[in-house]
Amino acid sequence: MLMLAGIVVLHITTIILLLVATIDNAWWMSDTMSTDLWGRWDKAGSAWHYTSLKNYPEDLLQAVQATSVLACIFAFLALFVFVAQLFTLPKGQRFTFTGVLQMISCLCIMIAASIYTAEFHTGGDEGWYGHCFVLAWISFVFTFILTIIYLVLRKKSE
User: pTM of the full predicted structure?
Assistant: First the structure.
């Protein structure tokens, strides 16, 4: 029972990290600017002003946006399928479908973070990667760990 609670807590933590990485505005930062997957925030005086991302290749930006959102969706689906399989899966069977959904989520966030790393801010832009970028990579690790757990885990036969 304790292992089951740990898996659910890890899964919910992963979903929260994915949502923060996708929604919050700190993928690339400097002292006067902050960007996310959806826009750019520039500081003028003491106020922040929202602008669109004009210097980013639109097709690559949309790929990062889409795969980040898909990672969140598949992580949610995997949690619901896991809970459903707890009640419907015959004893001794593996949580394969949950593992596959989690693997898709893992691949999606890996693709998003990899494209962002390889294609954006590579020309010596002044700034640094923000906490959302780091959270995306941490959530990749967590989704990968959960994938392995779900593919190895069997429903306990008592």
Answer: 0.89
